[in-house]
Amino acid sequence: MDSRIWSRLPQRLIDRVIAFLPPPAFFRARAVCKRWSNTGPDNANGRPNCEGYLFDPYNVAWYILSFALIPPGFSPASSSGGLICWVSDEAGSKSLLLCNPLVGSLTPLPSTLRPRLFPSIGLTVTNSSIDIAVAGDDLISPYAVKNLTTESFHIDGGGFYSIWGTTSSLPRLCSLESGGMVYVEGKFYCMNDSPFSVLAYDIAANNWCKIQAPMRRFLRCPSLVESRGKLIMIAAVEKSKLNVPKSLRLWGLQSCGTMWVEIERMPQQLYIQFAEVEGGRGFNCVGSGEFIVIMIRGRGSDKALLFDFYRKRWVWIPPCAYVNGGGEGEGELHGFAYEPRLATPAVTGLLDQLTLPFQSFNG
């Protein structure tokens, strides 16, 4: 352990070693390393204009993520493989950024071809490819939007690029909710309104289909999440004219791709408490691994429930200490599933390739 030897290790080799650390170990290591402290999550030199808060369900702890490189006018839209996709807020052709907040990397993508307002965005990153889909909210005039089309982006380790050139039509009369999509086994999924159903986009086939939602006439605030490789729907069930207690239920989409099976139900006493806190304001859900988080909407709300599939346990998440001192305030937390990774070598190589052809493309 001679420091004269270890201090001379090439930085790229150190980064490869650090990439295999679990995120909590990385956050602890930041305390003794100026370089990591300055490039990753926020340091003691002051809060940036843009920051996020990472909840670790294993250690029940909150961390700050700094987004100092993100320019004004962008909002986070989706995440996969340690990368977060940011999209421009201004109406028109959308600009997208891929960011790894742990290492401070930022990769701009070419703008989408069609002008949109607040489209739904899906992102999936593997060791050898990056796929993005941007769907709906087409600007058909400066004053009107319709859910008409999808355009997709693809890059892989084999050198194949598709720069928003692949497009497809959305199902007729669809009313997909603006926001993020959920990726499961080659497809992006999102909720459709009036009445509730699920829209599925097959990336390889480049087409959409509609899946009927379970108990669609009695659902409130349905959300889709990915958990352990399965698509799961979470919603409150309210049958006002039938003698059935109100509840919050989870359904899993079966391998046939059209059938749902109820897999879990919130205990009734907890649901009564949850409904009182929620007060009809609604809720959003995110899923990652064996955990699902249910976040209550509304200004000043920092309440969220965590469900652990393995332990079959529901617990209230402690308030984030970095938001309004951890107490009731004016803000509202919005979240999405994010798996922090320092680096994935193959994906890092793809991102390095992005800068070369796309700089000339944009020029």
TrEMBL record:
<dbReference type="InterPro" id="IPR005174">
    <property type="entry name" value="KIB1-4_b-propeller"/>
</dbReference>
<dbReference type="InterPro" id="IPR015915">
    <property type="entry name" value="Kelch-typ_b-propeller"/>
</dbReference>
<dbReference type="InterPro" id="IPR011043">
    <property type="entry name" value="Gal_Oxase/kelch_b-propeller"/>
</dbReference>
<dbReference type="InterPro" id="IPR036047">
    <property type="entry name" value="F-box-like_dom_sf"/>
</dbReference>
<feature type="domain" description="F-box">
    <location>
        <begin position="3"/>
        <end position="38"/>
    </location>
</feature>
<dbReference type="InterPro" id="IPR050796">
    <property type="entry name" value="SCF_F-box_component"/>
</dbReference>
<dbReference type="Pfam" id="PF00646">
    <property type="entry name" value="F-box"/>
</dbReference>
<protein>
    <recommendedName>
        <fullName>F-box domain-containing protein</fullName>
    </recommendedName>
</protein>
<dbReference type="InterPro" id="IPR001810">
    <property type="entry name" value="F-box_dom"/>
</dbReference>
<dbReference type="Pfam" id="PF03478">
    <property type="entry name" value="Beta-prop_KIB1-4"/>
</dbReference>
